[in-house]
Amino acid sequence: MPNKPILIGITGGIGSGKSIVCKIFESFGIPTYYADDRAKWLMNNDPELKRKVIEQFGEQAYANGSLDRAYIGKLAFHDQEVLNKLNSIVHPLVGKDFKDWVSSNSDKPYLLKEAALIFEAGSYKQLNKVISVYADQETRIARVLERDPHRNKEDILAIIQKQMPEEEKMERADFVIRNDGSSSLIKQVQELNLQFRS
């Protein structure tokens, strides 16, 4: 039976640059599971999950058959109880989907799971190591404003408030990648890639 690949989590606050870091790892041939993207895909494509979301948030949760992210986001990020309810519906399904994905990539030396809420959702317990990607708050807000035209600064700050403070993420992580312009991202990823393969 082959050894299971090492499972590495990549986390960081909104706008920290997790996706860029994952793309660099992917350039070294390492597959990445994007938990938030898969959650959105499942919310749009899994009939049972869709039914639960509509049950919880009403028909307006879907506009023209696809998830209305702005509507759900407005509800969830301004009310902790609503966010907890959403997570309790979505996270178990994402967990199962991740397990299936790991099985289908078991020939790799290690695999990455990218998720904003690795510590908050408790999914770090299923991982061997966690990398936290760090950038200061002003940089992160500027990046998200540029990337997500449907969000304003108030929305982004509401999301930041719901996420674990960066300092705590960095303390809890096994590795920290700095994406604040102080050192080369490629060099930092290259060093970790060599470490994980050895």
Tell me the count of domains.
1
Mean pLDDT: 91
Give the overall shape. globular
Helix/strand class: alpha/beta
Strand order of the largest sheet: 2-5-1-6-7
CATH homologous superfamily grouping: P-loop containing nucleotide triphosphate hydrolases
Fraction of residues in H or I helices: 40-55%
Spans of at least 5 consecutive residues with low confidence: none
CATH architecture descriptor: 3-Layer(aba) Sandwich
- Rg result: 17 Å
- How many DSSP H or I helices? 9
The number of distinct β-strands equals 7
Percent strand equals 5-15%
CATH top level is Alpha Beta
* Separation of the first and last Cα atoms: 20 Å
Tell me what you see in this structure:
By secondary structure, the chain is α/β, with parallel strands linked by helices. It has one domain (6-197): P-loop containing nucleotide triphosphate hydrolases (Rossmann fold), CATH 3.40.50.300. Helix content is 54%, strand content 14%. The protein contains nine helices and seven strands. It has helices at 18-27, 35-45, 47-57, 69-76, 80-104, 137-147, 153-162, 166-172, 185-197; strands spanning 6-11, 32-34, 62-63, 66-67, 110-114, 129-134, 175-178. The protein has a five-stranded parallel β-sheet with strand order 2-5-1-6-7, sandwiched between helices. The radius of gyration is 17 Å and the shape is globular.
Q: In a few lines, what is going on in this structure?
A:
With 198 residues, this protein is of the alpha/beta class.
